[in-house]
């Protein structure tokens, strides 16, 4: 039932199955020693699976932490990189998941796409459709409806079907919306402008040439390059978030204040993000 449920999740959702995850702790208590995290998601949480089968991410992806492309659509680490390490092969992990008698499933909702530089560039809109932070209200309201009504409704049904599992909704939508809306309050400078892109302006995004790629546009050969300070940006390439934003999201997850129903993760163990 658990794996069947995953099939119906929209590809932009992220699911972590946490067994009784190699989070860094400041204590040596056994209750802090999570043994596994099973991560299912799209490129916002893919640490190399997709790029192992298809052309790899080009420079400047990976520039901040890995100093080279590392199969991640970001300048550095993703949220999952701050929460756990992956020392085993997928078949072993799947077998372990089947054997879990007690488990915690954490699901993340769709992100506030109305704040994405890519959507703001490609989707026609008027100034009246933007909120005070420059995000498209219509699209963000649609995402909120999906998260609050459709997704949470599905989770209620799933809790009934998987009574031996603790299923927690992690509202990373609100975390990302806060970063896009108030970047300076969190040590960042730019919310709806991409670090790696082409075109400059308010969004620095051109759908004809993605981060790290070179294309001919209007008779000119152009390259979508990275800014010198990705640590000041929420958006890396118009679609994915920077390492700086990912770490802030990971800290919010560890804090536990965005869990529904409440799950006292920070009270159970003094966890710190890896790195």
From TrEMBL:
Keywords: Glycoprotein, Signal. Residues 1-21 form the signal peptide. GO terms for molecular function: hydrolase activity, acting on ester bonds. InterPro entries: GDSL, SGNH_hydro_sf. The keyword Signal applies. The keyword Signal applies. It comes from the Eukaryota. PANTHER family: OS06G0160200 PROTEIN, ZINC FINGER FYVE DOMAIN CONTAINING PROTEIN. Belongs to the 'GDSL' lipolytic enzyme family. This is GDSL esterase/lipase. It comes from Acorus calamus.
């Amino acid at each position: 039932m658990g794996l069947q449920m995953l099939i119906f999740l929209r590809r932009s959702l992220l699911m972590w199955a946490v067994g009784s995850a190699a989070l860094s702790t400041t204590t040596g208590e056994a209750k802090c020693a999570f043994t596994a995290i099973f991560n299912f998601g799209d490129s916002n949480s893919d640490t190399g699976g997709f790029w192992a089968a298809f052309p790899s991410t080009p420079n400047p992806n990976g520039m901040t932490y890995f100093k080279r492309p590392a199969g991640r659509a970001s300048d550095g680490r993703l949220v999952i990189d701050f929460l756990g390490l992956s020392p085993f092969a997928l078949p072993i992990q799947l077998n372990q998941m089947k054997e879990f008698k007690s488990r915690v499933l954490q699901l993340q909702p769709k992100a506030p796409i109305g704040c994405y530089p890519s959507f703001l560039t490609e989707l026609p809109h008027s100034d009246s459709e933007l909120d005070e932070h420059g995000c498209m209200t219509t699209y963000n309201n649609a995402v909120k409806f999906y998260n609050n009504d459709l997704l949470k409704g599905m989770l209620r049904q799933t809790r009934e079907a998987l009574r031996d599992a603790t299923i927690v909704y992690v509202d990373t939508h609100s975390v990302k919306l806060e970063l896009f809306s108030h970047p300076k309050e969190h040590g960042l400078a730019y919310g709806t402008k991409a670090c790696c892109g082409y075109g400059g302006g308010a969004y620095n995004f051109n759908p004809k040439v993605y981060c790290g790629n070179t294309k001919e546009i209007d008779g000119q050969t152009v390259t979508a390059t990275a800014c010198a300070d990705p640590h000041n940006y929420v958006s890396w390439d118009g679609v994915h978030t920077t390492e700086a934003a990912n770490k802030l999201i990971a800290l919010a997850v560890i804090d536990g204040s965005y869990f529904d129903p409440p799950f006292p993760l920070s009270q159970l163990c003094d966890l710190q993000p890896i790195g």
